[in-house]
Model the fold of this input.
Amino acid sequence: MRRFLDRLYAASGSLASICLASIAVVMLAQAGMREFGMLLRGADDIVAWLCAAAAFLALGHTFRKGELVRVGLLLEHLPPRPRRALEIAALGLTLVFVGYMAYAVVSFVHDSWKFNEVAQGLIRIPIWIPQLSAVIGVLILFIAVLDDFVRLLDGGTPAYQAAEDERRVSKDFSESL
Done:
């Protein structure tokens, strides 16, 4: 199971980076075509959908790498016992919030599908298709938070903390700049 989850997080991070690279390709193609008097219709729509996909698909991977904003500044200054209790509470609250977020996003996209909503831009496709990236990204974030919550309850170190500790050991303080 561990291998599957780690691959899931890595795959979502890779898909997010592919979306970012695709944004660059579309924008460069649009600029290049403009030089020849041609127009890449719907480029703005595609870039917008890719931006949203990149943001949502990166959430789980980013969380696991310890790159999302957390309450670490407060927790670092506490003794181990209260720190663990507050970290469980914070991660539990995060799990509830992300669970609600997942429910809301899935419900929103389901409504788009149910009512046959179509994108309003130049590319007229069912809007639920590009919205699926938000569903997938939020569900992967939920799984990542649940994964670390269970790990913390079992007495283990959450992945985000292990990643942060690893950066400190290697004297990489770039995240605190």
